[in-house]
């Protein structure tokens, strides 16, 4: 029996590509297991997919002072021992990682048990967790072609990003119904990632009176960020977080305003959506979202605003310019060739699994 362990977590961006792979692996008669953290978002998302989930202890290497920095190495060590036990128990043929610090103990345990592993780097530069995993994996898949220059050439493979098939199955009638909108006015979708963005939320709400003169706005604002005073505002619909509903909302959106996590960039551009990216600043990240957004802008696929330049007037002007030139952006996106990340990674798994 072919068995695979998938791992990765911390944010939805580390889990959604794994869900795309799970869909295809299920059709190919793989027995699928998932190793993640006890409390991370991956646990609830994987449980919904009815995949066997195994929690382990994990830590995070921070670039700033925190008392947890002294405790987390012990959590990682415990996670390695837990992962070794799981490797012996599950006896996987291969491990696939989408990154995040929960993956480090799993990859090391797989190497110690002579189980081949493959990891995926979603950003242009390589995150710290994947840097730690490089010596222990067979291949490092990349979402961006130029990520290879940061990796050993004998291990880097450009695959693109696995994208869930259901993203393409949106139903416009359901989308309009979910939002309470009509099909007579353009729709702007605004989303700030799985946790939401206070800055984007505030800026959007500042310009809502002007936007609602010409557009309907659906706003995925993050857990705890719904503004109850705006619940009855005509043409404005708020959600904390959406999962199954998202493809339907995508289908009715003429313009999408989003953070620039890799999943968001690739899903939206593959759907040929006209986008305005507002990447996380370097104060809140290592700058990977800025690089992702610059990739899209430099290829004529979108526009961006840095968080430092997010004023009401700039926000409004960018939206109006995008709508005015949306056909040009759609044409540019349609010419850009994105690899089928799911198929490419499934092929690698089929090449490297143990016991074939």
TrEMBL record:
UDP-N-acetyl-alpha-D-glucosamine binds at residues 11-13, 164, 194, 289. It is found in: Cell membrane. GO terms for biological process: carbohydrate metabolic process; cell division; cell wall organization; peptidoglycan biosynthetic process; regulation of cell shape. Keywords: Cell cycle, Cell division, Cell membrane, Cell shape, Cell wall biogenesis/degradation, Glycosyltransferase, Membrane, Peptidoglycan synthesis, Transferase. GO terms for cellular component: plasma membrane. It is a peripheral membrane protein. The keyword 4Fe-4S does not apply. It catalyses: di-trans,octa-cis-undecaprenyl diphospho-N-acetyl-alpha-D-muramoyl-L-alanyl-D-glutamyl-meso-2,6-diaminopimeloyl-D-alanyl-D-alanine + UDP-N-acetyl-alpha-D-glucosamine = di-trans,octa-cis-undecaprenyl diphospho-[N-acetyl-alpha-D-glucosaminyl-(1->4)]-N-acetyl-alpha-D-muramoyl-L-alanyl-D-glutamyl-meso-2,6-diaminopimeloyl-D-alanyl-D-alanine + UDP + H(+). Residues 187-338 form the Glycosyl transferase family 28 C-terminal domain. Coiled coil: none annotated. Pathway: Cell wall biogenesis; peptidoglycan biosynthesis. Its main location: membrane. GO terms for molecular function: UDP-N-acetyl-D-glucosamine:N-acetylmuramoyl-L-alanyl-D-glutamyl-meso-2,6-diaminopimelyl-D-alanyl-D-alanine-diphosphoundecaprenol 4-beta-N-acetylglucosaminlytransferase activity; undecaprenyldiphospho-muramoylpentapeptide beta-N-acetylglucosaminyltransferase activity. Belongs to the glycosyltransferase 28 family. MurG subfamily. Cell wall formation. Catalyzes the transfer of a GlcNAc subunit on undecaprenyl-pyrophosphoryl-MurNAc-pentapeptide (lipid intermediate I) to form undecaprenyl-pyrophosphoryl-MurNAc-(pentapeptide)GlcNAc (lipid intermediate II). HAMAP family: MurG. This is UDP-N-acetylglucosamine--N-acetylmuramyl-(pentapeptide) pyrophosphoryl-undecaprenol N-acetylglucosamine transferase. The gene is murG.
């Amino acid at each position: 029996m072919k068995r695979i362990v998938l791992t990765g977590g911390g944010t939805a961006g580390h889990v959604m590509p794994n869900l795309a792979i799970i869909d295809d692996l299920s059709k190919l008669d793989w027995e699928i297991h998932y190793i993640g953290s006890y409390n991370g978002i991956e646990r609830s998302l994987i449980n919904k997919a009815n995949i066997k989930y195994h929690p382990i202890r994990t830590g995070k290497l921070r670039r700033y002072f925190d008392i947890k920095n002294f405790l987390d190495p012990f959590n990682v060590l415990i996670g390695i021992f837990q992962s070794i036990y799981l490797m012996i128990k599950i006896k996987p043929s291969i491990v696939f990682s989408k990154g995040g610090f929960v993956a480090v103990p799993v990859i090391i345990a797989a190497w110690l048990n002579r189980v081949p592993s493959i990891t995926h780097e979603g950003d242009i530069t390589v995150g710290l967790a994947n840097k730690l995993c490089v010596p222990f994996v067979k291949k490092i898949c990349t979402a961006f072609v130029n990520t290879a220059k940061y990796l050993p050439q004998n291990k880097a493979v450009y695959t693109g990003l696995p994208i869930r098939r259901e993203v393409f199955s949106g139903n416009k009638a359901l989308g309009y119904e979910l939002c309470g909108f009509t099909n007579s006015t353009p729709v702007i979708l605004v989303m700030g990632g799985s946790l939401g963005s206070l800055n984007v939320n505030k800026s959007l709400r500042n310009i809502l009176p002007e936007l609602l003169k010409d557009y309907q706005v659906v706003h995925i604002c993050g857990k705890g960020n719904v503004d109850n005073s705006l619940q009855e505002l005509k043409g404005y619909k708020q959600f904390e977080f959406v999962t199954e509903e998202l493809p339907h909302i995508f289908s009715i959106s003429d313009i999408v305003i989003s953070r620039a996590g890799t999943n968001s960039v690739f899903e939206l551009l593959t759907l040929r959506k006209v986008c305005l990216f507002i990447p996380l600043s370097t104060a809140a990240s290592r700058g990977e979202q800025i690089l992702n957004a610059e990739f899209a802008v430099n290829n004529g696929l979108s526009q961006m605003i840095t968080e430092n330049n997010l004023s009401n007037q700039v926000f409004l002007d960018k939206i109006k310019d995008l709508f005015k030139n949306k056909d040009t952006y759609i044409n540019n996106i349609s010419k850009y060739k994105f690899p089928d990340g799911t198929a490419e990674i499934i092929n690698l798994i089929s090449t490297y699994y143990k016991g074939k």
